[in-house]
UniProtKB/TrEMBL annotation, chains A, B:
Keyword Membrane: no
Keyword annotations: Metal-binding, Oxidoreductase, Zinc
Source organism of this protein record: Verticiella sediminum
Gene3D superfamilies: Medium-chain alcohol dehydrogenases, catalytic domain, NAD(P)-binding Rossmann-like Domain
Name listed for the protein in its UniProt record: Zinc-dependent alcohol dehydrogenase family protein
Single GO MF descriptor: oxidoreductase activity, acting on the CH-OH group of donors, NAD or NADP as acceptor
Location of the Enoyl reductase (ER) domain: 8-336
SUPFAM superfamilies reported for this sequence: GroES-like (SSF50129), NAD(P)-binding Rossmann-fold domains (SSF51735)
Required cofactor names: Zn(2+)
InterPro entries linked: ADH-like_C (IPR013149), ADH-like_N (IPR013154), ADH_Zn_CS (IPR002328), ER (IPR020843), GroES-like_sf (IPR011032), NAD(P)-bd_dom_sf (IPR036291)
Amino acid sequence: MQATMLYGPRDIRFEDRPDPQILKPTDAIVRIAAACVCGSDLWPYRGIQTITEPMPMGHEYCGVVEEVGSEVRHVKPGQFVIGSFFASDNACPVCQHGYQSSCQQAEFVGGAQAPLLRVPLADGTLVATPGIPSGELIPSLLTASDVLGTGWFAAVAANVQRGVTAVVVGDGAVGLLGVLSAKQMGAERIIAMSRHPSRQKLALEFGATDIVTERGEDGVARIMEMTNGLGADSVLECVGTQESMMQAIHCARQGGYVGYVGVPHGVELSGEELFFEHVHLHGGPAPVRQFLPKLIDLVWQGKINPGKVFDLTLPLDQVAEGYRAMDERRAIKTLLIP
Amino acid sequence: MQATMLYGPRDIRFEDRPDPQILKPTDAIVRIAAACVCGSDLWPYRGIQTITEPMPMGHEYCGVVEEVGSEVRHVKPGQFVIGSFFASDNACPVCQHGYQSSCQQAEFVGGAQAPLLRVPLADGTLVATPGIPSGELIPSLLTASDVLGTGWFAAVAANVQRGVTAVVVGDGAVGLLGVLSAKQMGAERIIAMSRHPSRQKLALEFGATDIVTERGEDGVARIMEMTNGLGADSVLECVGTQESMMQAIHCARQGGYVGYVGVPHGVELSGEELFFEHVHLHGGPAPVRQFLPKLIDLVWQGKINPGKVFDLTLPLDQVAEGYRAMDERRAIKTLLIP
């Protein structure tokens, strides 16, 4: 097959690679229906996260099961499935507590920007849709694999409840789907912090009630003004920089909740500051597997349309252009069709 | 009157001071029945927290209302009352969310190691007991003012629920009352981390099921062994140093809760580490006012006896010895009788 590899900063190649094989009896091979480029793929693409050898890229996937290992019991060839970027057994105590992305057997699933993908721990990782989806549902189903699941977890970690005021820091695809998630969970007011017109528009479509264009402490000052000096009940941090994290913490009210899902890069938090801010802090790699049945159901029933975050669709062999467009912020998120 | 002042490191003086007066119409003057020395008083006593001028000491108090300002409606002279170390109006939005220690009008109550104390915002701050307590209840009622309320908040922030495994980091009075609080909230297993025999004994009396004497990463390794490699559901951090905070975070399971109430001194947290630990983090100055009615009731009914943390009782004029005994860890907590 031909698949996507990163060789170094901004050096994406679509090249010949061996077809994936069943390596363990719990594996499955999935024929990818659609893949995409993740905001977190841009960290190594930009060289901020260094790599030591060529890396197979892509960790968001959905498609039809091609083959399963001898110990796979529930997943069947021919099923349309979606899985998380962390394979999990969905059975260990960590999974039972709902933290499948930290499963005691967790394994990162890489190499999804390709026609075929090996998924470990298939029974614990993959969730089948009720049937073979129509083509128009596929982008939305694909988002459940990571970007929607991650935005959803940001809202869960930020304790979004009916009637709360939520703030979303970050207008990438995760932030935008954080808006959608907060809306689904009943937030009354959803303030999206964004300075990009196309992203503001999508935030409003997904349920944002207000847009704040200021950033950093100016942004915090606007949120304080809008909440009578109190701050927000729930803040979704969807970036992962020092500035965005402090912006999120300072936007929360005393006793409010910050859910952070942007992979932190060089973020340092002062214990004393957190103490006197009185915030709740929770985050980490989203346990997408926990949410997949719910998210698939919402998409399947047409209640949400998270696939709108894809504003660029390319054939898989043009993946390098997909990275460039996101790097230059010409695209929110690139959909890749094998 | 004669009252307690700190002039500099280890320089406690009991000296003539003017009697406190009603300064605002919402103030009350309380005649102190018993006061005490707090673990947090040791930070300035030891010079770790610097002071720029002589400081009236003491912020834990209970006693009989002597006089009230013209706008005080509910608190009456002659009532026996307990208040928090932060005065609060108990009415603003922050208070309504249960964070009275961050009240929009919050004011620190200092100078309680004295026969008389001015308490601001009396109606919002003070809670009266059902009647005048017998002398033997007074130490336990006094703990509700801070050390019990703070241990209780640690358990609330650590999400202690029926059946959980809780770990308590710190065997000072707050940690010990964190054990008592976790027991009240139904924790099934309570592991106290302590290497001092007298404190271990009290921890066991308060409901600890296990004692771990190791500290730091050795302590974490013991907790992991005892929890089948999973970690604890709830961890109460009751110290406030970098080591104790990391010990607490590493003792928690993925998705577990760390409640921290030790005032952090020089604590820095790595965003990336918190992210992959997947813990919930919450803490701050305990909103004692929220818990006072419940805690007074538990003491009044004889269901808890938190006053046992006082293992040294001195007349107020020997307050300097009370500080020395705690500084040298000869006493867990000193009770002072005016």
